[in-house]
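Reading a protein record of the kind used here takes only a little practice. The integers have meaning only within a learned vocabulary of local backbone shapes. With that in mind, consider the following protein and its fold in token form:
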Amino acid sequence: MKRIIPFIISVLSFSGLFAQITLTDSYFPAAGDTLFTFNDIMPTIDVPSSGANQVWDFTSLSGPVVLQSVLKPASDGENSAQFPNASILADFQGGEGYYAVDNNSYRFQGYVGADPGGIGLEIIALFSPNVIERRANLEYLDVNSSESNMLFAFSFDDIPGTITDSLDLPITPDSLRIRVNIDRLEVIDGWGTVDIPGGSYEVLKENRFEVTDTRLEAKISILPWQDLTDIVPPEIGFFGMDTTRSYNFYANDVIEPIAQVFLDDFETEVQRVSFKANDFTIPVRDISTLTADVIAYPNPAIEEVKFELTSLPTGDYKLQIFNILGVPVWSRDFTTGGTKTMKADLSELRKGTYLYSLIDGKGKTLTTKRLMIIRP
């Protein structure tokens, strides 16, 4: 945790009053609950302030559809035997996510679905210890840190041939494994009132900094496991270190986060916001029925853009960028499933308007969206 000690110092370098509320376990979801949220991928709010007795105005947020997530008893899951302490089942990356809950914490135990590296494997992932998603009883200026790990081993023959060829290894490994480490720091750095469309809530603000390190390792004969992460071509999957800064606003007796604000890679602008839905006059869609999609950010982009691909059935895909004449100027083929993040260097493209498309293995275009490239 040494690399995030400066974060603690910066967050706690102000004085404040005691929190007006304490978050109890009343905001923990339970089996039988349904969560309703919006997702604004082009928010116009500023980075939220910290401190006591704040007022955060998020009323400008909007979303095209209400996302519905139905939580079921863990025993309803096809793989519940793999998660004996779980009590809640949720849809997760086209598979199953399992959660455990007690009076002090709401914990993510693991999932069955696409591998976290995005190379197209269906896995059973168990995190040890569990990833703590919510805590009770939380108060202003509380600081919590946690670490969790996951290992999944598989045969070299399980990988699609297009990927094994790309690895270009001099010796065929006996087996491979994906290793994930999640290093998280959470500080309750604010309290006050947050206003969203259709409601106003007394909340605590959680400042969360998370470092996820996803590694690909190989076992060859009697040699120790060898780390291949640095030689994995980017088109294979997303391996390496990724950092995320988010601000989570929670209220007692409300199971949805009132708002979850995610920052860009530079932590200077709000990238997207998920928030509680209060308006049900627009269509409601269950998360389990969402189709494959891709979002580019930042958009407008300067030199580098990150593509977030979601709800992908396991298979082959192509991500392609076209100029306004319809001529392809960038493309990448990959095999994946579930959720995948992909970076692209667009520094050689001229500023202007482009289109990007997600295409499946049969050549069908799943979605096409606009991308703006600007230069300082």
